[in-house]
Amino acid sequence: MAPSDAPAFRDIFFTSEDGLRLHARDYPVATPSDIGGRLPVICLPGLSRNARDFHQLAVLLANHPENPRRVIAVDYRGRGLSQYDPNPANYNVMVECKDVIALCDLLGLKQCLFIGTSRGGLILHILAALRPDLIAATVLNDIGPAIEAEGLMEIRDYLGRRSTFSSFEQAAEGLAALHSRAFPALAGTDWLDMAHALYIERDGTLVADYDPALNDQLQAIDFSKPLPSLWPQFEILAEKPMLIIRGAHSKLFSAQTLQAMAQDRAKVTTRTAPRQGHAPLVHLENIFPSLAVFLSEF
User: Fold this and answer.
1) Is the pTM of this model over 0.90?
2) How far apart are the two ends of the chain, measured CA to CA in Å?
3) Residue 283 carries which DSSP code?
4) Percent of the chain, pLDDT > 70?
5) Is the pLDDT of residue 298 over 60?
6) What element of type H or E holds 260?
């Protein structure tokens, strides 16, 4: 959260089934009577990302002039304010999906709208198989049941660098230098917001806010073999209304996969985020209206 942004959330801490202390942000609507029975939104971030990624989006949704709704953004284990797992093998979509279920059960949420960015969308494929009753509709942000090796290798190499910075401004400049070709839609303030979401200060230095052991799994992938896919789980997920967003410059999520996901499925809507790569910032003006219209149906 950037310093200019006033806190609009409360922190939730809960315990996983294996005893870890996990965290989420809860963004309530300003006037509860305005919620009108609208379902809450649960936001699931990418592999190394955290709940801060969704701050701007959550504020927009919680304060929407026509359809305000509660938003909950999750820190997976080993990210943000959630406890690191002493067993890195537990950094997998099945375990993380069960953590999301534990959060829903704690809050007494029977059915929700879900926004899954990258890793978050993979978790939603598993959730559809384990607890389809929790899902009213989904937004998949630059992710599908099949991912491209080129994009995953880029993420592996990027996380492997473990860059550090002396200030958030320097971090923003570093992010822009590395990613601006794929994200010409982003302005200077967007890069600064991203820096505040990705990094945290420890001992006077800004470091990425996740357990470094996360990258061990990526380093272990044998890219000479086909990557596994989740098409059977997607078939279950696609039984509910779905909005799929693809970054026009994404290397992880191909236009061909997007087309296959939407083909002959009446409940699937697709949008392309222009001038963005993996994964699009969906609170930006060129994509947020489509997202807001989709969510307004629930």
Assistant:
1) yes
2) 28
3) T
4) 96
5) yes
6) helix 255-262
